[in-house]
Amino acid sequence: MEFQMDMDTSRQTRETSISMTPGGVQIDPLWRTALWQQFGATIDMLENALLACPSTHWNGRLWSDHSDLPQPPESSAFWYITYHILFWLDLYLSGSLEGFAPPTPFTLAELDPAGVLPERPYSREELHAYLVHLRKKCQTTIAELSDEKAHQQVAFPWIGGKSMSFLELLLYNMRHVQEHAAQLNLFLGQNAIDGASDWVPRAKADEGGE
Fold it and tell me: What is the pLDDT of residues 155-181, one digit of tens each?
């Protein structure tokens, strides 16, 4: 009898950790909440840097290019690094190149192996609107993440030539955003810009943090 009760309790525990949606069985809410809180906080740190950068530093270069194959100066500009982050955040949240297209006025030029830059610098307003859109896209993607979707294998030719699960791609994506957001904030701090972001521990609750 005791063994049967333990089995029933175990079954109930498993049943309360999943929920059914049109997309299949969702993963444990604990993991989805933790993932969103940290991914959302990463995007919030990027937003803080974007909003803090004054127009006088919008075209400022984060680093000098001393490589054997020099890149255009704009490739290290504050506005371009911000755009670069958002473009790849968008693509990786989509999980595939097939059918992917960023919203206007952005293009697919970022995928060009020749390193083609946008025809003009994007404004703070354009990039902030893109960020707000992607924050919601990220939150929705994680909230609707099913076990099947989490296990889905995805591959991009520039990521080591090997496939990874969509769940791992989410973590890869978050690391990429955090790396560049840190660079932007370092640039602002080095230039004594007021409003450079402090550490953001969790996603902003007023934007839908769980």
Answer: 998 887 789 999 999 999 999 999 999
